[in-house]
Amino acid sequence: MKVWCGAINALGTTLIISEQAPSSCSEVKGKACCCAYDKLTVTLFTQGTTAMFGYTKIELENANVSMLMPQPFSQRHPSYLQRYTSTGDPHIIDKVQEVVALHK
Hints:
The protein is α+β, with helices and mostly antiparallel strands. Helix content is about 30%, strand content about 25%. It has four helices and five strands. Strands 4-3-1-2-5 form a five-stranded antiparallel β-sheet. The radius of gyration is 13 Å and the shape is globular.
């Protein structure tokens, strides 16, 4: 089972996504970090995630990670994952990306 972890800086604009152990999320200080399993259901996140995005722990747990993305990215996200799992070609995995995040 794959685990995807993403860390976002304090400005909420720089994202790095990796396939890594969920324990690495707890090592991120002062940033939002969110981990999701294969189906992209949020399973682990830092307090920085709730503060940055405005969601409570209850709202984030077991939610689809795409709730943190505006359109059109949230709509396209499943196809991005499908492409990666089919081809193994990482378009953004382990790369720093400028992103737009969606606050509640």
